[in-house]
Amino acid sequence: MSKILQIARREYNYNIRKPSFLFAAFGTPLIIIGLWVLLFAFSGNTTERPAFSRVGMIDTVGIINPDVAVDNISFEIIPYTDEASASADLDTEQIEAYFVLPEGFKTSGILPIYAYKELPNDFQYSIRRLILANISAEAGVTMPLDRILNPFNEINVQILDSGRTVNDAGIVFTFLAPFFFSLLFWISMQTTGNFLMNGLVEEKKNRIIEILVTTTTPTQLLMGKILGLGLLGLTQIGLWLGAALLALTVGPKIEFLSGLGNVQLPLELITAGFLFFGLGYLFNAGLLAGVGVLAGNEQQSNQYSAFILLPGYLPPIFLIGEFISNSNGSTATLLSMIPITAPFSMVMRIGFGAVPPEQIVISLGILLVSTIIVSWAAGKVFRWGLLLYGKKIRIPELLRVVTSRKVTYATSATLSESGKGAE
Amino acid sequence: MQQTAISVEHITKTYGTFKAVDDLSFEVYPGEIFAMLGPNGAGKSTTIRMILDILRPDVGNISIFGEKINEALKHRIGYLPEERGLYREVPVIEVMTYLGSLKGLTRPEAKKRAMRLLEQLELGDKAKKKVKEFSKGMQQKVQFAVTIIHEPDLIIVDEPFSGLDPVNTQLIKGMVKDLKQKGTAIVMSSHEMFQVEEMADRLLMVNRGKLALYGGVDEVRRRYAIHGIIVEGTGDWSLLNGVEKVEPATNSRNGILIHLDPATSTDTILTEISSNSAYHITKFEQAVPSLNDIFITVAGERPEDIEAEHKQKVSVNV
């Protein structure tokens, strides 16, 4: 056990100082938070234009009834009978703008507005209220004007069985949060997976592996690496969750980030994240170690790593619409049952809605069994390939190793002379 | 009866149809330097890997200090492989501490010993430098230090002097001799026979996987001793009395090997040369065969020819 801990400690201490880790751990949340802040800053940064006090109106179709009282209009409306007098008053600045309800307005809806200055922000809103109030009065509608303009104020989505309620302002965040949450877990898994593969390549390239195999067993070596890098991944996620908590605590106090107050990261989502991505990490680490031990250089190991990891998150990302529109539909359910795509898919499903508990249990079970099988097979390949350098390995050869009863280290000599190494 | 550090009994290792090691048996004792000699591809590294349990013999038994190799025994062994390296991006002291801790030392103890060894190897002031900043020779010294950091009872060093300059070769040789004094069993494997023959107490010569020669170095030399002298100088050596044959000496650049008839002693021939003005000598020594010469006598072929054949075979396989 102490050797596993020593190896884990070395992997953790070595990789935590790597610039690529520091960038992934600190850079990623900083970039995400920075982009978020910029997005909100720019979206809220509309210029406040000066209000108008007097606006002219030529009603050629007789829609506007002076007896209809309309509140919340930010300027005085001066009626004119013809455009020429309105235009003259605009030129002498008696009024700041005028609009015309022309012939055929009721069908065309075209509303000419004349002004020398930019229209105030609430100009259109005031005109809309004026016209709508008059049309509804003429039609005998008694509903409050505000309700006609905006039939509902706020959506309250009850996510059944989950106990969560999402309001209108938080609905975008509600769907974004599980996605980003899954993505961050995935980035962490990918970072540590790459470290595992590149570390193996480095140890083989430096030939230090020759010393390690006479000091430890392949199992100790593999377990130490997976444990150390797993802890590194947890550190990364811890940092990100810390940053997220900070953003969620401080964000709502800043005006343009107030929407963050509606973001929810429920406990079940966090628990599912750790469970599924924890097992997913072990599943992928097994695959990566088994394949990484056969990589001849870093470039090759990165290719292998992409080949293994991309199928895990590309399908759920491309099919995110399916997850949002029907998180319990057949596509989302199927993806959350396949071990490779299960972590990303199931965590997103849990974030988007209520998943039947039996599906969570079945998915976890499949992932657990697959992880055990992968680790068992990877352990054999790992032992077999530790001392092989720059040899091209064929799939049938790997299958023979995996199905062999007993596996020993293969060397260039064993392969070149007989292709053996497994019995 | 003295306990053996290594006992190898009739081991054979076959790769397909190729016998890398063929019925090899030998023993290594504590407190001795044991040389494993032979050309590249002779089966030395395969034998070492079997001793270390990296490879398993098809036939035969190996025991270390009287036991089958196990995890606890691995802590009593130090191994310097032929294919070696260190973590390049890490300070030397950290690499040594880590590898020491894997050999069962506590981290503080491993660090303390690492520092002491670095001082001994004249690298004390460079402990915090990264491995990649070290020259090849310095890295080689660190490798050796890593091999002995846990004070093993048995060390196996494969080509220990490759890449070292003469000064550092002497330094490492000195440390190896110290370990021998302390009772450590030392196995040195090399294809450059002259490098280890001066240090070894006993030797095993392997050729094409088979035992070619095994025994004490002095005893082997006596067994294959030549009755003759090596001289450097001028004169027609074949005209001297008691000379059977004259040929260039293989282990001396300008030397001439003079084979004497059994009745002529070295004293007699020296007297004759020094009293005859037709001869002038700058060097005169007893002819002792090098292990290389002995190998040629035993194997019937030159080590370099076997190596060339092996290289050709490997390149075809790759």
What features would you describe in this structure?
The complex is a heterodimer of chains A (423) and B (318). With 423 residues, chain A is an alpha/beta fold. In chain A, 62% of the residues lie in helices and 6% in strands. Chain A has 17 helices and six strands. The C terminus of chain A is likely disordered. With 318 residues, chain B is α/β, with parallel strands linked by helices. In chain B, helix 3 packs across helix 4. Chains A and B meet through helix 1, helix 7, helix 8 and helix 17 of A and helix 3 of B.
Percentage of residues in DSSP E strands of chain B: 25-35%
Residue stretches of chain A low in confidence (pLDDT < 50, at least 5 long) are: 417-423
Mean pLDDT of chain B: 86
Chain oligomer state = heterodimer
Coarse shape of chain A: elongated
Strand content of chain A: 5-15%
What is the N-to-C order of secondary-structure elements of chain A (H for helix, E for strand)?
A: HHEEHEHEHHEEHHHHHHHHHHH
Read across the widest sheet of chain A, the strand sequence of neighbours is 2-1-3-4
Low-confidence residue ranges of chain B? 314-318
Taking the alpha carbons of the first and last residues of chain B, their distance comes to: 47 Å
Mean pLDDT of chain A: 81
Which helices and strands, and how do they pair?
The complex is a heterodimer of chains A (423) and B (318).
Chain A: H1 2-16, H2 19-43, E1 54-59, E2 76-80, H3 83-91, E3 97-101, H4 105-108, E4 113-115, H5 123-138, H6 145-149, E5 156-159, E6 164-167, H7 171-205, H8 209-215, H9 218-250, H10 267-292, H11 298-318, H12 320-325, H13 330-335, H14 342-352, H15 357-385, H16 395-403, H17 412-417
Parallel strand pairs in A: 1-2, 1-3
Antiparallel strand pairs in A: 3-4, 5-6
Helix pairs in contact in A: 1-9, 2-9, 7-9, 7-10, 7-11, 7-14, 10-11, 10-14, 10-15, 15-16
Chain B: E1 6-15, E2 18-28, E3 33-37, H1 44-51, E4 59-64, H2 71-74, E5 77-80, H3 92-102, H4 107-120, H5 136-148, E6 154-158, H6 166-181, E7 185-190, H7 193-197, E8 202-207, E9 210-216, H8 217-223, E10 228-234, E11 243-248, E12 256-260, H9 266-275, E13 280-286, H10 291-299, H11 303-317
Parallel strand pairs in B: 3-7, 3-8, 5-6, 6-7
Antiparallel strand pairs in B: 1-2, 1-4, 8-9, 10-12, 10-13, 11-12
Helix pairs in contact in B: 3-4
